[in-house]
Amino acid sequence: MAETAVKTKAEPTTAAEEERELTDGFNLIIDALKLNGLTTMYGVPGIPITDFGRMAQAAGIRVLSFRHEQSAGYAAAIAGFLTQKPGVCLTVSAPGFLNGLTALAHATTNCFPMILISGSSEREIVDLQQGDYEEMDQLAIAKPLCKAAFRVLHAQDIGIGLARAIRAAVSGRPGGVYLDLPAKLFGQVMDAEAGRNSLVKVIDAAPAQIPAPDAIKRALDVLKSAKKPLIILGKGAAYAQADDDIRKLVEKSGAPFLPMSMGKGLLPDTHPQCAGAARSTVLKESDVVLLIGARLNWLLSHGKGKAWGEGRKKFIQIDIEPREMDSNVEIVAPVVGDIASSVAALLDAMGSKWAAAPAEWTSAVNKKREENVAKMAPRLMNNNSPMDYHGALGVLRTIVKERPDAIFVNEGANTLDLARGIIDIYQPRKRLDVGTWGVMGIGMGYAIGAAVETGKPVLAVEGDSAFGFSGMEIETICRYQLPICIVIFNNDGVYRGTDVNTGGDDPAVTMFVKGSRYDKMMEAFGGVGFNATSPDELKRAVNTAMDSGKPTLINAVIDPAAGSESGRIGNLNPQSKLKKK
């Protein structure tokens, strides 16, 4: 990675200087990444990082080029979730940096470790606002939207800069980190031996945070007092990769558990204690709730209101961030520590004589779950053409059951909300979706990142609106020949394809081109396309795609009248109180 110095005849040299080994910023960044096991990058090439991407690729780092930085950022974010190492996104300056910033903020909000590396204009020009190419004070813009932000100005500081970024991304509550690399840094030359000595291999980047014994005792005392206990598993529990201990804790407690969408699969959704199909019942009627890696945000109605019933509940919360406690309601038993250490401590303290949850409570939950499952079953078995959501998802439910190792990526409005409840997940970290923000556009980036990081086949189920945010990445999927099957639920619009513009000739604001054939887009890039108009056709197409491992897109024709406004969060959509005249 180093080079021999070359002097002109005008420069006095010594024999030692002529043979001196040199390195530069390009090579030092690459060496620092490899030293820390960061051997995959997602990004979009361009000035000033094009040559860096080429050199990284030549040095053995896998560099995947996307069509848009936002999708590259989402791929890096989900890589962090899946691997517990920071996913790396590489962008150009200013507009490219801004495109990647949405994904960086998304990673921070969802507690995914990620590093956004962006080239930037020179400080002396930016600070005087002299109008450089893509001039922007990127560090100042990034700071409020990520966990930490650093700028490296000198080649000898590259090792420290990357080490700080890695440690910030994965320690404590994980999140996004911005690393600013001005263009001049890449070409800086220094002695190769000094360069090697400046690199830092990060040791114990995410040290265990052991919970206090008193906190463990307090939590178990509260749990022991419960007549109607409930355990909620969030994506933080999935990220921890403490799968065996979490399963043991849930089963030893005997309590019903409710998995949040990306916590699904820690225990199979078909587990006898799973209360996913009785969500309303357990939220309203439980008296003690143990939160493991889940936050009482809008996804859980902030822990209060009608969804939680009338009785006062006691909350136990495990989280590595002390400030998360009491964020919405009183947490009577806060357990501050990392999930793995905290769950292990709870298990150890429970001993061998722990009394399981009362049978009267668990039987009532099981009865409600079985009733709801039985009500839903006929809707999932219809073979209507055009399809409704339930008929289409019923087919996919069976396919996922037969292929539990595949990764299920999901986004949309109705497509997301209904799939969350219908599609059972059997293994941890196999369901990836929009997360805390509910942000659309994650689909293709997530699918690519998941396929690359795990080597597993990916089934990405998209609403037609959600797909539009990142659809051009199907070319990326075809270029890298990734085993991704995309199913687009196409109902000709946002929420429904039946909206009408009452004030003019333009299409209604939620309408798309009727009868669109997204499968033809995939074929244009050399992938495989199918058009499915019935559940039977959808089943054949998806199985063919998953068996082949080829990039495939299935245009699943959904009845335009199917679906509801804003899916299941229509209450968040303000309605006008004024009557039309």
Note the quaternary state here: single chain
Strand order of the largest sheet: 4-3-5-6-8-7
Beta-strand percentage range: 15-25%
Name of the CATH class of the largest domain: Alpha Beta
Q: How would the global form be characterised?
A: globular
- Which runs of at least 5 residues are low in confidence (pLDDT < 50)? 1-10
Strand segment tally: 20
What is the H level of CATH, i.e. the homologous superfamily of the largest domain? Thiamin diphosphate (ThDP)-binding fold, Pyr/PP domains
Helix content estimate: 25-40%
Helical stretch tally: 23
Number of domains: 3
Return the CATH topology of the largest domain. Rossmann fold
Q: Assign the CATH architecture of the largest domain.
A: 3-Layer(aba) Sandwich
How would you characterize the largest beta sheet? 6 strands, parallel
Q: Report Rg.
A: 26 Å
Structural class: alpha/beta
